[in-house]
């Protein structure tokens, strides 16, 4: 899309990461229904910025992207381990193995690390298939999405949650393929309102027991590939429209900062709150969980941005 940063997209990322933190705050109802779309939305928004890469440039592109994403992955993993296990450093080799394997091996303060490896593999996968004709790309994405729902795929404990890539690539590629449509309708109240009405109806139908829909990418819990295509999409345009509307007001600056450090928030919102609960023995409320899980990582992210070594190690920037 535009070469300059897109304000509403930064704001949409901020809203997405806030919803991720809120969903982890301990409210069962919110966790279920935010789970319908919060992670698919993150992949969708990331896909909007995807740029195809030629085969001849793929190796260098893939190495650069992998280095910039996996270095912080291990740095955060080791730093979090040190904070919570400073007296048990003999466990570090096992922890490094778990980081290397990733996926379901990482729980507790590392509970969202799966997203980083899945996002990386999804980007690399689309980087490869984007070299083919568009109809081939669509067939591959569709075939992977359907196959990813098979019990054989789901039941295996994949390193890096690699099986989830088969699902995530659908949402990610949708953001890429539909970016011109989004640019045209991102400020359309009618499109957002109609989508929001259908999203609300889906929630009501589910609450009243006429539908049993559940979506949790991390746990490979998806029970209907048709609904998994449709229901998360119902929430995308309302969030995008709200983001575009917020971009007209001064509060946008705060949300743009949150969006800028969304990956830091992704890494640290669980460790921050676990630190409060276990080390400080302070029982945070869902509201405090959300506030602490957003504000403290943003401050830490800003501090990381001040020096080149910390930008490289923790932010994956040059």
Automatic annotation (TrEMBL):
It comes from Jeotgalicoccus halotolerans. GO terms for molecular function: acyltransferase activity, transferring groups other than amino-acyl groups. Belongs to the acyltransferase 3 family. It holds the Pfam family Acyl_transf_3. Residues 7-305 form the Acyltransferase domain. Keywords: Membrane, Transferase, Transmembrane, Transmembrane helix. It is found in: Membrane. This is Fucose 4-O-acetylase-like acetyltransferase. The chain crosses the membrane at residues 12-30, 36-55, 67-88, 108-128, 135-154, 160-177, 189-210, 222-246, 258-276, 282-304.
């Amino acid at each position: 899309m535009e070469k300059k940063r897109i304000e509403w997209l930064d704001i949409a990322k901020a809203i997405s990461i806030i919803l991720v933190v809120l969903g982890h705050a301990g409210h069962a109802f919110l966790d279920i229904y935010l789970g319908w779309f919060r992670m698919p939305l993150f992949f969708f928004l990331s896909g909007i910025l995807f740029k195809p890469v030629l085969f001849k440039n793929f190796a260098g592109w893939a190495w650069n992207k992998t280095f910039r994403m996996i270095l912080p992955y291990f740095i955060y993993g080791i730093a979090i381990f040190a904070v919570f296990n400073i007296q048990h450093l003999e466990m570090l080799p096992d922890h490094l193995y778990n980081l290397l394997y990733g996926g379901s091996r990482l729980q507790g303060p590392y509970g969202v690390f799966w997203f980083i490896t899945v996002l990386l593999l999804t980007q690399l996968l689309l980087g490869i298939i984007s070299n083919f004709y568009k109809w081939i790309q669509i067939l591959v994405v569709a075939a992977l999405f359907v196959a990813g729902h098979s019990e054989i795929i789901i039941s295996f404990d994949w390193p890096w949650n690699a099986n989830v890539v088969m699902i995530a690539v659908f949402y990610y590629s949708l953001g890429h393929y539909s970016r011109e449509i989004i640019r045209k309708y991102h400020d359309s109240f009618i499109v957002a309102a109609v989508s929001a009405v259908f999203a609300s109806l889906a929630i009501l139908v589910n609450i009243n027991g006429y539908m049993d829909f559940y979506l949790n990418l991390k746990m490979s819990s998806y029970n209907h590939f048709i609904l998994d295509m449709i229901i998360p999409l119902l929430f995308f345009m309302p969030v995008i429209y709200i983001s575009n509307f917020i971009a007209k007001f001064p509060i946008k600056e705060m949300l743009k900062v949150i969006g800028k450090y969304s990956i830091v928030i992704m890494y640290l919102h669980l460790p921050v709150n676990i630190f409060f609960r276990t080390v400080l023995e302070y029982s945070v409320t869902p509201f405090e969980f959300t506030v602490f899980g957003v504000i403290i990582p943003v401050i830490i992210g800003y501090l990381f941005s001040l020096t080149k070594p910390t930008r490289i190690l923790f932010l994956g920037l040059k």
